[in-house]
Design brief:
Distance between the termini: 81 Å
Shape: elongated
CATH topology of the largest domain: BirA Bifunctional Protein, domain 2
Helix content: 40-55%
Radius of gyration: 40 Å
Low-confidence stretches: none
Largest sheet: 7 strands, mixed
CATH class of the largest domain: Alpha Beta
Length: about 350
C-alpha cells in the first residue's frame, strides 16, 4: 500500500468515527485544511521536475477526490441521522382531527349596505361611488352650503392640507351628497343633445367622516344618499318610494312613516323622516331614519340643469343607524371594535 492509499484509508476511518458535524469538520481540517496532509502533498510538488509534477499531481488529485467523497458521504449520513432523530422526537399523531380554518362572514354594516343597494336597485336606481377625499366645492358649495355654515368648521370636518388643480381645498367628505352632484352633472352632459333626458335616479352609499364620537356617532360612518330628479317628480314620489324601501328593508308593513319639517341648505322644503314600529321592542317610538327634501333650485343649477324645467327630491340615511335598528344594537362602536365574539353573531 503506497502513501496515498494509506492517506485515503486514514481519512475514511477518521471521518467514519466522527460522531457529530463539528467533529467531522475537525477531521476534515487534518486532511484538507491549510496545513492538512493533502495540502502538504500538493505544496511539495514544487520541488519536482515538470514530468514528475504531472504524474504525481494526478495521483494526489485522485486521492483528494476520494477524501472529499468520503467527507461528503459522512456529512450526508450525519444529516440523515439528525433528521431521523428529529422526526422521532417530534412525532405527530395523525389520528387527531385537523385544525380547520375559521369561516368568515360579511360585516353587518356591509351586509346592510348590500341590502340597501339591492332594494333600490330593484326600484330602478343606479349605484354611484366616488372619492372619499372631496373638494370643498362638491362637498359644500355645490350643495348650497354658505361659507359660514357650521359644518365647514374644523369642529365638524376633517380637512386635508392640500388643494386640487383648481386651487380648491380638500376634505374628507362629510356626506355622500357630493356624488349626487357628480352623477347628475355627468348625466346631464351625457344627454345634453337628446330630445328628452331620462330621470336621474341614483343612490350613493359609502364611508363618510365627521369629528364626532360617542355611542351613536363615529368619526367614520356610512351613509346612503338618494336622488330622483326629472320633469315631473314630487314629494308624493318621495313618500311612496321611501315607504316601499323601509318596509322591504325591515321586512314588515306594520310600521308608520311621518315627515317632520326641518332645514337643510340643499333642499327646500326639507323634512326629517321618522318611522314607528307597531310591534316589537321598539314599538310605539318614533325613530329618525333619514333627512330629505325637494332639491334646492341652486343645487339643480349646480347639477347643470334648469330649475324651471327639472324638479326632484333627495334623501340621506345613516347605514349604521339602519343596521342598529335592524339588528337591535344599542352602541354604534360595537360595529367597529373588531370583537369577533360580537361579529360572529351575524354569520
Amino acid at each position: 500500500m503506497n502513501d496515498l492509499d494509506q492517506l485515503v484509508l486514514d481519512a475514511q476511518t477518521d471521518f467514519a468515527k466522527a460522531p457529530t458535524p463539528a467533529e467531522l469538520e475537525n477531521a476534515k481540517a487534518r486532511y484538507l485544511g491549510k496545513a492538512g496532509r493533502v495540502t502538504e502533498l500538493l505544496k511539495a510538488l514544487g520541488a519536482l521536475t515538470a514530468e514528475e509534477k504531472k504524474s504525481r499531481g494526478a495521483l494526489i488529485n485522485a486521492a483528494k477526490q476520494q477524501v472529499e467523497s468520503a467527507l461528503n458521504a459522512r456529512r450526508h449520513a450525519l444529516a440523515e441521522a439528525e433528521l431521523e432523530q428529529q422526526l422521532k422526537s417530534e412525532a405527530l399523531d395523525v389520528t387527531l382531527p385537523g385544525r380547520r380554518r375559521g369561516e368568515g362572514a360579511v360585516h353587518p354594516v356591509i351586509r346592510t349596505m348590500e341590502r340597501i343597494e339591492q332594494i333600490f336597485g330593484s326600484m330602478g336606481f343606479d349605484i354611484a361611488d366616488g372619492p372619499e377625499i372631496e373638494t370643498d366645492w362638491y362637498n359644500f358649495t355645490a350643495l348650497n352650503s354658505p361659507e359660514n355654515h357650521p359644518a365647514r368648521s374644523m369642529q365638524d370636518t376633517f380637512y386635508v392640507d392640500a388643494k386640487d388643480a383648481e386651487g380648491r381645498w380638500l376634505n374628507l367628505r362629510t356626506h355622500t351628497s357630493p356624488m349626487q352632484i357628480r352623477y347628475a352633472r355627468a348625466h346631464a352632459k351625457k344627454y345634453a343633445s337628446a330630445a328628452r333626458m331620462p330621470d336621474i335616479r341614483v343612490i350613493a352609499p359609502g364611508r363618510t367622516y365627521r369629528v364626532d364620537s360617542d355611542a351613536t356617532h363615529s368619526p367614520m360612518f356610512h351613509q346612503v344618499e338618494g336622488l330622483w330628479v326629472g320633469e315631473n317628480v314630487s314629494f308624493k314620489d318621495l313618500k311612496v318610494m321611501y315607504l316601499d324601501f323601509i318596509q322591504a328593508f325591515f321586512e314588515t308593513t306594520e310600521l308608520q312613516l311621518r315627515f317632520r319639517p326641518s332645514y337643510f341648505p340643499f333642499t327646500e322644503p326639507s323634512a326629517e323622516i321618522d318611522i314607528m314600529f307597531e310591534h316589537g321592542p321598539l314599538a310605539g317610538k318614533w325613530l329618525e331614519v333619514s333627512g330629505s327634501g325637494q332639491v334646492h333650485p341652486q343645487v339643480i343649477r349646480n347639477m347643470g340643469l334648469d330649475p324651471e324645467r327639472f324638479i326632484g327630491f333627495a334623501f340621506g340615511s345613516g347605514i349604521d343607524r339602519l343596521a342598529m335598528l335592524r339588528y337591535g344594537i344599542s352602541d354604534l362602536r360595537l360595529f367597529f371594535d373588531g370583537d369577533l365574539r360580537f361579529l360572529s353573531q351575524f354569520k
